[in-house]
Amino acid sequence: MKVCFDTDLIVQYGGRGPRYTSYPTALQFNNALTAVDYRACAIASNATGVPLSLYVHIPFCYSLCYYCGCNKIVTHNQARVDRYMEMLYREIDMQSELFDKSRKIEQLHFGGGTPTYLESEQLDDLMAKLRRAFTFDESADREFSIEVDPRTVDEHSIRHLAALGFNRLSLGIQDFDPVVQKAVNRTQTTDDVLNLVLAAREAGFESISFDLIYGLPHQTVKSFDTTLELVIGMRPDRLAVYNYAHLPNRFKGQRMINDEDIPSPEMKLEILHRTIDTLCDSGYVYIGMDHFALPDDELVLA
User: Fold this and answer.
1) CA neighbor of 114 nearest in space, from 61, 184, 171
2) How far apart are CA 93 and CA 96, in angstroms?
3) Is the entire prediction scored with pTM above 0.90?
4) Residue 216 backbone phi and psi in degrees, to 5
5) Domains of the chain, with CATH numbers?
6) Among residues 138, 164, 142, 140, which one has the least CA distance to residue 153?
7) pLDDT, tens digit, 9 for 90 and up, residues 52-94
């Protein structure tokens, strides 16, 4: 698959902005829908009998990745984590009261922050709480995914996640280049990631996804080519290749990144172009919106 870019159009409408991850975008969200409105809509939806999807946000991180624009809390204060978990359990109780038990949770996603910030016992308790509150689809068709920071898990942790019922992993890679990793305060080795991928395959995970980011400080076309080569060798089922949005006025951590170290718009475009060509030439299908998948993946078959 070959993709052609209209350079003049890109220059005309170029500018810094948040990632386009939803429609309407997060900037258009407002408070017009009240809690009363939401409750009424949720209860009314029970008439459809449609299965449910559930997202659980674990905002905690041990350290700050300078590029990050997610909803996060960097802390080592366990008391703060405990308070959050108490509130999360209350939220689970409130939400579960709105939906009929006959409506199974077919899709479950843990995101962050860093979901694997939680200790094994905390994850055990959280999953047990969710299973008491909702009816989980325990069939092979379920999609239970969790975002994983490779720096916070080992092979034993991966097996534990599988035992809890997760069957999909999303690994935050971003870039394998050591210089880039140091510049964004996120250092992890290629061997560590490979060992986790092998452990996940052995544990029976059906899908493994990698997150990459282009436009990070000190990235070059050549360095990102090397990262892609390493990624392709590990053969994840899916890839999300995001454009780095540098918004230091909004995200304080990004102020640690020097503007002059960020690739130019022209270089970022070249990196994206080569990424699309390289991944497609290596057997991946470009779905669009930053996402790629192997031909037999559900995203492609859909």
Assistant:
1) 61
2) 5
3) yes
4) -75, 160
5) 52-276 (3.20.20.70)
6) 164
7) 999 999 999 999 999 998 899 999 999 999 999 999 999 999 9
